[in-house]
Every structure is written in structure tokens, then in C-alpha cells.
Specification:
The structure is a single chain. By secondary structure, this protein is an alpha/beta fold. It has one domain (about 10-305): NAD(P)-binding Rossmann-like Domain (Rossmann fold, 3-Layer(aba) Sandwich). The protein has 10 helices and 13 strands. The radius of gyration is 19 Å and the shape is globular.
Length: about 300
């Protein structure tokens, strides 16, 4: 069910980031004439005055809010205030500026970490509020929940259109190259691109995750402009992969033949995490198009090219 993109002026916060750049590419393919991809250099969204100034300057009809303070498990563990309070400030400021300056739609990108640690698998959108998230990234997850609930509040008080795509773990060309901020696929890619003698994997390898190619994610985010107001929409593949199997696939994508060493002193995080993606298919006609093997092959090629620059 292909749907035209209805806006001509679109602002992307976090527009220079991994997902933000993919969204820019997707908008360009849709021939959107006015695309404003902003980074932290354009202003501090933690300050209401600067958020207001940005929205007033660019006059977007639609905001795709990707800007975030975040990272992998290790970063989250040591930066709970940064990943919680800073994100709450940014999310509230963007919504308030959008309301103040007549923005028609705000799409606030969320994450699968919002779901409760002990919730039923696969996660349906209704399960967001059913329990506390995984404590390792609890502050970050709660900041996203607050954003989604504020979206409901802005709908109820002002009639604003908001929607919140909940994304599975992203990967693809252009992901993090800093291992201290990298999520699992990027971390494995960084280390494999250095041609190591072995590949160390955190935990037992039994934790299962869902992985979404970044270009698929961008299309999934954009289709949410057609969702009902304040909708929460899972955007993923619905397929879970054990971390050990992922590591094997990353090694294969790099055409290496090296052993995997499990560092069981490190945490697994939540053991299972996979989304129920039926709502996106039924309501919006969206489904991911890229297989994990094809996506990892493209990603490995990019990381090796980055290494050789």
C-alpha cells in the first residue's frame, strides 16, 4: 500500500546521524523539495529558546525527531543522566516548539528498549506501559516513554498529529565507528574490519535480538505520517537472531575464518527482544525489505572501506 509523502517542508533533528542521513536519502527519493537536516551544531534542543529559534527559522510542516543522547550497553551504564534527563528535555522542547509554531506533524523516533523487561514476546504496542524496562538502559527507555505519552497529551490538548515509530536494533552503512558508542552490530563490524585473530562477544551469546537495516527503518519512519494521532507503531522485521549467530554472520560478511570468544563476565542484557510488526503491515502497508545477510554484507563493505580511507 504505497502512500505519497504529504509534506513539502521537513525538518530532521539528528539529521547528520546514522538514521537521520538515511531519512534524508529517503525523502530525496520522494522528491520532497525542502529538507532541513539539522545537527547539534545548529542548536541545543535541551534549551527551549534554541528549539523555538530552530523551528521558527525553518518553518517545517513536519518534524522527524531523531536527535538523541544514546549509545550501547556500556555507554548507557555509565551515563544514565545524559541518556535520561537530556532526552526528556529535548523531546519536550521539540513538541512544545512544534505546537507553538504550527507544525502539522511530529514523528518522534523511539526504541524497542521502551518495552518492559518481563513483557510477553513478541512485544505489541499496547505492552509499552505494562512494566519497567531493562534497568541497564532504564533512563533512556523511560525518556522515550515520556515522549510518547506527551504525544498523546499534545493530541488531546492541541489536536497535534504525532506518531512514534518504535525501532528494532538498527544497523547498516554509516553506523558508529566509535566503539564506545556502538551498538552490537556496529561493535562487531568495527572489530572484524580490523582483521582480528578472534572475535570477543559480550555475554553468553544466547540473547536474541531483532535487527533492522537502516534504509528500511527510514521508510518505516516516514510512513508513520499516515498513522492515527499519537500512534505507537513497531518498525522491525519480527525476526529474532541470537547474538552468537549474529557474530557468525558478521564474520562471514567480512569473509574471515576466526573463532568467537564469549566473555561471560559481561552482561547479556535482556535475553529476548523482538517486536510484533503486524500493526505496521495492517495499518500502513509497511514491511522491511532487506534480509539480515544482505544487510550485513553491505555494512561490512562500508566498514572495510572506512578502515581503508
Amino acid at each position: 500500500m504505497a502512500q505519497d509523502f504529504p509534506y513539502t517542508r521537513v525538518l530532521i533533528t539528528g539529521g547528520s546521524g546514522f538514521l537521520g542521513q538515511a531519512i534524508v536519502r529517503a525523502l530525496q527519493k520522494k522528491s520532497v523539495p525542502h529538507i532541513f537536516a539539522l545537527s547539534s551544531k545548529d542548536g541545543d534542543l535541551c534549551l527551549q529558546s534554541q528549539s523555538d529559534a530552530i523551528i521558527k527559522k525553518y518553518k517545517p510542516e513536519c518534524i522527524i525527531h531523531c536527535a538523541v543522547q544514546g549509545g550501547g550497553i556500556g555507554w548507557m551504564k555509565h551515563h544514565p543522566v545524559d541518556s535520561g534527563a537530556d532526552n526528556v528535555r529535548m523531546n519536550l522542547n521539540v513538541l512544545e516548539s512544534a505546537q507553538k509554531y504550527g507544525v502539522q506533524s511530529v514523528i518522534g523516533v523511539s526504541s524497542a528498549c521502551v518495552y518492559p523487561k518481563h513483557g510477553a514476546i513478541p512485544y505489541s504496542e499496547e505492552a509499552v506501559w505494562e512494566g519497567y524496562p531493562e534497568p541497564l538502559n532504564g533512563s533512556y527507555a523511560l525518556s522515550k516513554r515520556i515522549m510518547m505519552d506527551l504525544g498523546r497529551a499534545y493530541r488531546d490538548q492541541y489536536g497535534m498529529h504525532t506518531a512514534f515509530p518504535v525501532l528494532a536494533n538498527l544497523y547498516g552503512p554509516g553506523d558508529h565507528t566509535d566503539p564506545t558508542r556502538a551498538h552490537v552490530v556496529a561493535d562487531l563490524m568495527i572489530r572484524c574490519s580490523a582483521d582480528p585473530s578472534d572475535l570477543i562477544v559480550w555475554g553468553t551469546g544466547i540473547a536474541r535480538r531483532e535487527f533492522l537495516f537502516v534504509d528500511d527503518a527510514a521508510e518505516g519512519v516516514l510512513v508513520c505520517v499516515h498513522a492515527p494521532k499519537a500512534s505507537i507503531i513497531n518498525i522491525g522485521t519480527g525476526i529474532e537472531t541470537p547474538i552468537l549467530e549474529l557474530a557468525q554472520k558478521v564474520i562471514a560478511a567480512h569473509k574471515l575464518d576466526i573463532p568467537i570468544v564469549l566473555d561471560k563476565t559481561k552482561p547479556d542484557g535482556q535475553i529476548r527482544k523482538v517486536l510484533d510488526v503486524s500493526k505496521a503491515k495492517e495499518l500502513l502497508g509497511w514491511a522491511a525489505q532487506t534480509s539480515l545477510e544482505d544487510g550485513l554484507a553491505q555494512t561490512a563493505e562500508w566498514y572495510r572501506g572506512y578502515r581503508d580511507r
